[in-house]
Amino acid sequence: MLLALGACDGGEQTASLEGSYTVYRHSMDGAPSNLDPARASNIYANFLVVNLYDTLYRYKYLARPYELEPNLAEHLPQVSVDGLTYTIRIKPGVHFIDDPVFREGKGRPVSARDFVYSIKRHFDPETRAEGAWLWQNRIVGLDEWKENGADYKQEVTGLRALDDRTIQIQLIAPYPQLLHTLTQGFSAIVPPEAVAFYGKELAVHPVGSGPYRLLSFNTASAVMVRNTGFRQEPFSLKNEGFNPALQSMYGLEHLEGLLPPFMDRIEVEFIAEDAARWNAFIAGELDFVKAPVSQFDQVLQSRDPPMLKPALADDFHFQASLESGFVHTDFNMDDQRIGYHPDPGQNARNKALRCAITKAFDWEKRNEIFYYGMGQVFAGIIPPVAPEFDPDQDKTAISRDLITARHLLRSHGWNAGNLPDLEIGFTSSVTERQMFEQFRSFMADIGYPRDKIHPLTFATYGDYAQAYLNREVMLMTIGWTMDYPDAENTIQLFYGPNASPGSNTANYNNEEFNRLYQASSTMSSSPIRTTMYRKMNRIVIEDCVTISGISRKLILLWNRDLAMLPDRSFLGGHFFRFAGRGEIKTKNKARR
Amino acid sequence: MKSPRTLTLSTVFASDPFEPGPKGSRAWYKLRQDKAGLFGLAIVAIFLVLTLGVFFGWLGQGWSVAGGGRWEPVSVDHWLGTNLLGQDIFQRAVFSLRTAFEIGLVVSLLSTLLGALLGVLAGWYNGEPGRTWVDGGILWFMGVLDSIPFYLFVAAVAYALQGWPWAMHIAMVATFWTTTGRLIRAEAMRIKSREFVLSARAIGLPTRLILLRHVLPNTLHILLVQATIAFVAAIKTEVILSFLGLGVQDSVSWGLMLAESTQEVLAGHFNNFLAASLMLFMLLLGFNLLADALQDAFDPRQASL
Q1: Which residue did the predictor score with more confidence, A316 or A9?
Q2: Are A426 and A436 in contact (CB under 8 A)?
Q3: Hey, how many other C-beta atoms are within 10 angstroms of the C-beta on A198?
Q4: Distance (Å, rounded) from C-alpha A40 to C-alpha A53?
Q5: Which of B40, B99, B250, B256 is the most buried (most CB within 10 A)?
Q6: Is the separation of the CB atoms in A339 and A507 below 8 Å?
Q7: Looking at chain B from residue 80 to 99, which residues have their Cβ under 8 Å from any Cβ of chain A?
């Protein structure tokens, strides 16, 4: 009710902050290929999907650590005492955008049934959805619904619309991460009419109820314009978790009480090439850029603490933060040349080989060369941004030890003649190729012949992903951005039943690990669960399944005349609606 | 050309302008008078020697060793400095010669051979009763290939066959042969009405032998120039494809060095860019001068002036 009153009060201010048409020009280092929420499997697609569609929840714009905030949902859910039943009310009067899919082209109200339909789509084989893993074996009756032919007329016991505005979810077992999954683009709400009308074309014809609607989309850019029918909810710094001590320099205060979305138009440029993206930003063609590492020298006055050079600080806001994820190189355990082997003796030799490779990997050099020494190297699979990260962890696994590596090879009968040919998969880009060459030089230090380490290149990330999901890549380097702030999201990457084509691309399968994962997956955050997570982390390290890992430092720059705090963490993108033109003007007028 | 069997009819028609012996001598004489051509030949010779040095393992063998620091300047240890990984830029630039010559040779030989065979067949069967479909079919095929924008086609083939070490070679051969094919077709159409060919047909020499002994040998001047042009074009294309990530995969090439330099130049490091660009420039200059000189030397119209 308060929100509705506020909306009436602030209605005059919605058009723009300065009385003119406002445009925000964002840049990304990759392009989405599909804007269907069921297939929004990467950060690029998610950025757009959460602005074109509604999700039930999102994270507070400014609160750190992250806090959940109702989005389309009216409140946080009512949860039964046993943690199995969630009841969620959605806000009244929310409409889909006007589109020919609706009667007379007028967007109809969003209902609880639309949410039920949208989640069911993930379990419909015809959708070829990529987000089903979030709810697989979690919701009562949903997996059976799929097995019974995915008939939408058939009700799912654990996923029901009690009325137009009430959703009820019944879980098979407690699932503490459920609400986090409902912040993601995968859970965005799609009207059945749009799926029926556009079919596969839904990939480029989004019909949602988000703050923006799509104007154009191709491989180079996407343009979104304000959804004029978006619900009117005044911006509240307090509600969004504003921290004046850390965030007062971003000019956010004057947005207080205004109605998001603040920008009339969002232009997103997909520029994979670092140099081109950076040049476009410096030329004033973009408002935001993730600074390429090759530019860190030119951008930063100091690395620790990260400080912008004065000349740039006049024109740009900047933020340096660790990514909410990590980069790791996995061994394909399904490959008998290096992974599991039916012969126990060979199995042990393969493990020794993996451990030797891991020991020979020089994380310090990798960090220095490719991440300007600003990344954070850590042992295992729980990245520093996760609440369960152990800052006092043993660093042995990430310390280069050539003597041990050579000893492991020798003691297990490996020599230059019988070492297997290693195939390292990567997409064919300059940086990836340089990383490959660096890897090869690391291995040369333990006597791994250069001509036994080969690149397995792919033109696009899609081709690469398809290959490793088909278990065709021997060693694969993967960057994982966490879906939610819970280490479960990275630990599940090594859970046996999630093997490829699931998220466990290493095809790792350890009984003890699996048992611990199953036991912890129904637990809410607690010291006991954290202990279990860390134990699983150690198991992965001891089995030498992955060369891991590093969390990169992201240097984000944006125009000083923008009032916003961009965020790529946890499949970001929600911040677009809060991006506004600020009161502070850039000193370099030529840029605008 | 010195085979006695080949000379049987050529000697009868010694005055024929297509007879290769005297023409070859004239061409060599003309080539020696062409200073630019000789300069090109000298450049090619120097690069050839360097390439042989790489092939025999005397030069550039440490191209993949990351033995220096990041972006080290020019020094005694690293004549052209180092790249991001600390690899020696000089060694990489020199080793890239092997890549360039390997691709240049394979592509120019195969595309010239294919162009010669299909071109001579098309030219021979042009207007032959009952066999015009050979000419028509080959012409149609050439037309189809030529109608596709060159770099788009090469990139598409290289992309489709990516991961296969010969993808780039196939892509180039598939497109380069058509020009040679058209030139040889036209030449074959002219030659087949010459007296020595008519005589060969009159005495019942099989078509296969006429083509191999009397028609093809008399197109050598075209093939030589076309092979040189294809050689240069193959190197340029390889650099472009490698720059785009569709070319060389498990080696080094000037294209890869230039791709690396796109990030380095912005950070103020130009050695990679300069080394690759200058090597490429010099090699192309040398081959272009040589190709021009060869063209002039073998051109009958120039000879009559």
Answers
A1: A316
A2: yes
A3: 18
A4: 12
A5: B256
A6: yes
A7: 84-85, 87
Strand partners, B134: none
Residue-wise pLDDT tens digits, A311-348: 999 999 999 989 999 999 999 999 999 999 999 999 99
User: How distant, in Å, are the alpha carbons of A56, A61, A148, A232, B115 from that of A70?
Assistant: 6, 12, 33, 14, 69
At B158 the pLDDT is: 73
Q: Which residues contact A357 (CB under 8 A, 6 or more apart)?
A: A331, A405, A443, A448, A544, A547
Give chain B positions within 8 Å (CB) of A275. 262-263, 265-266
Distance, in angstroms, between B2 CA and closest chain A CA? 45
Listed in order, the ranges of chain A carrying CATH 3.40.190.10 are: 10-265+559-591
Q: Are B47 and B286 in contact (CB under 8 A)?
A: yes
Q: Can you read off the two tokens belonging to residue A414?
A: 């490996």
A&B contacts, CB < 8 Å = 67
What fold is seen in the domain A325-551?
Dipeptide-binding Protein; domain 3 (3.10.105)
**Tokens standing for residue B219:** 């197109």
DSSP B235-256: HHHHHHHHHHTSS--SS--HHH
Contacts of B268 in chain A (CB under 8 A): 298
Checking if the pLDDT of A388 tops 50, the result is yes
Where helices occur in A481-580 by DSSP H, the ranges are 488-491, 511-520, 527-542
pLDDT of residue B22: 55
Is residue B71 within 8 Å of residue B269, measured between CB atoms? yes
Say which amino acid occupies A21. Y
Query: CB-based contact (8 Å) between B202 and chain A?
Result: no
Distances in Å between the alpha carbon of B235 and those of A346, B97, B146, B241, B281? 46, 10, 20, 10, 11
If you compute the radius of gyration of chain B from its CA atoms, what whole number of angstroms results? Answer: 23
Mean pLDDT by 10 residues, chain B (305 residues): 40 43 70 90 95 94 90 94 95 95 95 96 88 90 90 79 79 92 95 92 92 92 91 93 86 94 86 96 93 82 53
Tell me, yes or no, if B162 comes closer than 8 A to chain A by beta carbon.
yes
Residue intervals in chain A for CATH 3.10.105.10: 325-551
Which position has the token pair 């916003």?
A564
The answer to whether ipTM exceeds 0.90 is no
Query: Which whole number is the average pLDDT over A538-566?
Result: 95
Q: Is B241:B254 a contact under the CB 8 Å cutoff?
A: no
Cα–Cα distance between B218 and B195 in angstroms, integer? Answer: 13
Q: How many residues does chain A have?
A: 592
3-state secondary structure of A544: coil
pLDDT tens for each residue of A504-528: 999 999 999 999 999 998 898 999 9
Q: Which domains are assigned to chain B?
A: 23-59+84-302 (1.10.3720.10)
pLDDT at position A4, please? 35
Give the residue among A536, A543, A487, A542 at the shortest CA–CA distance from A513: A536
Q: List chain B residues with CB under 8 Å of A369.
A: 70, 84-85
CA A480 to chain centre: 7
Q: Could you give the CA distance from residue A288 to residue A318 in angstroms, rounded to a whole number?
A: 10
d(CA B124, CA B212): 12
β-pairing, A221-226 with A265-270? antiparallel
The number of helix segments (H) and strand segments (E) in chain A equals 18, 23
In angstroms, how far is the first alpha carbon of chain A from the final one?
41
Cα B144 to Cα A385, B174, B242, distances in angstroms:
56, 11, 26
User: Is the pLDDT assigned to residue A12 strictly greater than 80?
Assistant: no
Whats the size of chain B, residue-wise? 305
Number of neighbouring beta carbons within 10 Å of residue B101? 21
Tokens 């966490």 belong to A482
Angstrom distance (rounded) from CA A121 to CA A156: 12
CATH assignment, A10-265+559-591: 3.40.190.10
